[in-house]
Structures are given as structure tokens and as C-alpha cells.
Amino acid sequence: MTDSCIFCKIVSNEAKATIVYRDGQVTAFRDTHPVAPTHLLIVPNKHIESVGALETQDEQLMGHLFTIARKLAEDEGISKDGYRLITNTGPNGGQTIFHLHLHLIGGQRMRYPMG
Ligand code: 5GP
Ligand code: ZN
């Protein structure tokens, strides 16, 4: 838990969010500024700043994050048509909240190329 981190506060229920999934390792909630019909954020419950701060011991947790992304895509009804998973990392990656998160975005055809 990091005092100033909004995603830590959402995980600990100190800040409000529309939570769609929670277990002992990860929490998922709707983005306040969705860019597509489905836009979820999936975060580890423990504070990890970004992919750049990952350690070997986090490998199981990261696998779980992706498995839950797959499950939530099914729950949202977007898995058949496909979706996009994004993890912005650092300033050049466009990261604005420095608590690692997966964006699960779907429900429309995504624009391409990225960058
Ligand atoms: P980043 O730019 O770090 O990859 O993504 C941060 C995302 O968090 C943005 O899409 C932004 O809309 C979302 N966001 C920022 N603050 C909050 C908040 O307080 N609650 C929720 N649910 N989403 C937030
Ligand atoms: Zn945090």
C-alpha cells in the first residue's frame, strides 16, 4: 500500500470505483474515462510501480493478471470478437498512474497502428 496511490486506495476500498472483480491477488474496475464500450483496469493488489519494477517473484501474479483479463473479456462478452490489452510503462509509454495495470479494451474495432 502506497499512501498517495489512487489504485492502492481503490484496492483497499478507500476510494470509490466500479469494481467488477476482486480476489486475493488482483482487482478489476471500470476506467473513469473509457475509450471503448468496455474499458477495464486490472491491477495487482500489491503496489508495483510498473512493468519496469517487476521482479522474478511476481511472475505468478502477472500470469494471474492475464488469466483474469481473459475471464473478464468473456464476462463482458467481447472475447469472441477480440479485444486489446495494454500496459503503458513510464512517461514515453504514456503511463499516468504509477501502479501497474492492464487496460482491457473492447467492444469496437481498435485503431491501428499503435504509437
Ligand atoms: P495509464 O495512462 O497510466 O496507462 O492509465 C491510467 C488510467 O486510469 C486512465 O485510463 C485513466 O482514465 C484511469 N484513471 C485515472 N484515475 C482514475 C480513478 O480514480 N478511477 C478510475 N476508475 N480510473 C482512473
Ligand atoms: Zn498503488
Q: What would you note in describing this structure?
A:
With 115 residues, this protein is an alpha+beta fold. Helices cover 23% and strands 22% of the residues. The protein has a five-stranded antiparallel β-sheet with strand order 1-2-3-5-4, with helices on one face. The chain starts with 5 loop residues before the first helix and ends in a 9-residue tail after the last strand. 23% of the residues are buried. The mean pLDDT is 96. Zinc ion (ZN) is lined by residues 2, 5, 7-8, 47, 99.
Per DSSP, the total helix count is: 3
Task: Report helical residue fraction.
Answer: 10-25%
Strand order of the largest sheet: 1-2-3-5-4
Number of strands: 5
The fraction of residues assigned to DSSP E strands is 15-25%
List the uncertain runs. none
**Strand pairing plus helix content: what structural class?**
alpha+beta
> How many angstroms does the end-to-end distance come to?
32 Å
Shape: globular
| Mean pLDDT score | 96
Radius of gyration computed on alpha carbons: 14 Å
How is the main sheet built?
A: 5 strands, antiparallel
Q: List the ions, cofactors and other small molecules found in this model.
A: guanosine-5'-monophosphate, zinc ion
Task: Please write the string of helix (H) and strand (E) elements.
Answer: HEEEHEHE
Provide keyphrases for this structure.
5 strands, 3 helices, single chain, 115 residues, binds guanosine-5'-monophosphate, binds zinc ion, 23% helix, alpha+beta, five-stranded antiparallel sheet
